[in-house]
Amino acid sequence: QVQLVESGGGSVQPGESLTLSCVASGFVLEDYDIGWFRQTPGGERQTVACINMKDGITSYLDSVKGRFTITRDNAKRTIHLQMDTLKPEDTAVYYCARGSCGGLYTIWGQGTQVTVSS
User: Which of 51, 63, 87, 108 lies in the 20 to 30 Å Cα band around 102?
Assistant: First the structure.
């Protein structure tokens, strides 16, 4: 079964860090890109970061560059999103998805809530 499962969300204060994880199953990882997205109630969905699972090439949303890092561990079939220096505007539900960086994503996880508040 093709599946993505996120974990690692939570509530933190501004300036703190969180690491999200996305465990993939049921497909050949190297054939796809994996993206991290976020969405707030009433807001647009944003592509936060994306990684090619074969060569590791990454891309980031401008507002998270230098603060967020996407990495892959193909042996563990896991994609991490390290989020440092978190800001209140990073508050959202974060999703991972399988697809193509800058293109279409067809398989989505269930999402994990990240709340940044003092």
Answer: 87
Query: Taking a C-beta distance cutoff of 8 angstroms, is the pair 15, 28 a contact?
Result: no
The pLDDT value recorded for residue 42 is 83
Query: Is 47 strand, coil or helix?
Result: strand
Of the pLDDT bands very low, low, confident and very high (cuts 50, 70, 90), residue 41 is confident
Cβ neighbourhood burial of 39 (10 Å; 0-12, 13-18, 19+): middle
Per-residue tokens: 21? 């994880």
Contact 18, 46 (CB under 8 A): no
Mean model confidence pLDDT for the chain: 97
Beta strand 10-12 with 112-116: parallel, antiparallel or unpaired?
Answer: parallel
Q: Where are the beta strands (DSSP E) in the chain?
A: 3-7, 10-12, 18-25, 33-39, 46-52, 58-60, 68-73, 78-83, 92-99, 105-108, 112-116
State pLDDT tens for residues 44-58: 899 999 999 999 999
